[in-house]
Amino acid sequence: MSYFKVIFVAYNFMETNNQQLEEELQGSALMRPSKVPNGKKLFLESYGCQMNFSDSEIVASILIDKGYSTTQNFEEADLILVNTCAIRDNAENRVRQRLQDYKKIKKNNPDALIGVLGCMAERLKAQFLEQEKLVDIVVGPDAYRDLPNLIATAETGQKAINVILSKEETYADIAPLRLDKNGVSAFVSIMRGCDNMCSFCVVPFTRGRERSRDPESIVKECREAFDAGYREVTLLGQNVDSYLWSGGGLKKETLTAEQRANSTNFAQLMEKVALVSPDLRVRFSTSHPKDMTNDVLEVMAKYENICNNIHLPVQSGSSAVLEKMNRGYTREWYLDRIKAIRTIMPDCGISTDVITGFCGETEEQHQETLSLMSEVVYDFAFMFSYSERPKTLAERKYADDVPEETKKRRLSEVVDLQRKHSELQTRKWVGKVTKVLIEGVSKKSNEMLMGRNSQNAVVVFPKGDLKPGMYVNVLIDSSTSSTLIGSVLN
Q: Cβ neighbours of residue 389 under 8 Å, at least 6 residues apart?
């Protein structure tokens, strides 16, 4: 069987200390060829979270099966698709700029089509088509199956849009085309949507209601990834801890106690995936503090191949702010979950999200966030100043009244503290041996390889004759705030 390379470009944004940090990931994977090549080329670009990356693999699968090949050069593309993120204003602004750049290719190729996918498509809908006139196609996160029809409509000169949200769509039957850059780690979506309605977040409006995917289809996808050479899967969901599959189209909120007892929850799903192979590492993202139960932690502790790493977003250390955010837990509840993690898995790596300057946040409440960070001492954090998003509860109910200068100063204090904590956490590894899954060549030297340990710490070591996908034991000799540096043990 012949194969060709598919190129994928992803952007992930953070704001720290009034600076926008941009990481560009270029990935390639060997994929099945088009069933009936149509001679047209696809350029696919994605912004934002891991879920968008996973969605782009679904989109690629659908279009490859419809005859498209792919290109790294958008100027030669017949179809340009941008998978978008609406979580922050800066990400949306960058997408608009990119669309302006792509629109220029129509001067040389007037038949080229431009489409916007994902969360911005759902949030802005016809604005892209009618007001800004940047694109020909607008497709929401639950309408990717309709892409071939929408493309056919756009080819006739009509504008094409489908942003209908679904209560059932999980794309469980579509085999994703792996677009990651290393051929070692794969994303596996286990659920879609979100029911939490955090007051600052647009996700429930752009991705719809929560629905879980059939566990057998998830296990099958993980087994196929392992058989294809992948050695790590990350189970994805907006709130993986609330995963619940009852079968037969039953809704979680209507389940009886008996039906719930006979359902598959997240702990049980994770165990099923862990049993695919002891050589398949299992990660997951993202957890929600209000839903993380001890059974999840106990399954993690039971299986060596389930990574000892949890991303547990706190957002704020103030119970009053958390209530305004509609997070569903208090400072005390969150710290109890941290205590449970430390008790059941003492060596677990913990990361988080922090928002500074949320509506009405006082200086005292900001100090509560800093004190919580000092009590937990996170390995890593995504840190943001609050950015008001249209149509959220916070926009409707609360004034965005913390001055930008104050937001930025508080963010700077959070970043500085986390940098110190990250240095403390990486320094603990010096002199210890840790098991690493090799992912590829280090960005800084072709003579060095990089991988991650179970706690998700990045480890760099000499290449030797080692290859991606191998497990090695590394003795850590030194560290920076973000990287462990060591040597491989025989």
A: 86, 87, 88, 89, 200, 201, 202, 395
